[in-house]
Amino acid sequence: MKICLRCAGARFVCEAHPDRPWTTGAGGCRCGAPGDPCPLCNGTLRDAEPPAIDPAEMDGVEQELIALALRARRRH
User: Does residue 44 sit in helix, strand or coil?
Assistant: First the structure.
């Protein structure tokens, strides 16, 4: 099962904070703004131009994935 890194599988992001999932769960945005379809995984925007990828954002994602892998390895 794949989980979108932008919306954490919610398929919607906060309209005011598009880098946060639109959910009341952990890590979700609770500012009260309406939700927008996730530009990465929600099929309603699949025909639209893909969002630009910020290299600095990718570095942060890669570092977080490495840290998660190391923590998981220590548990097992």
Answer: helix
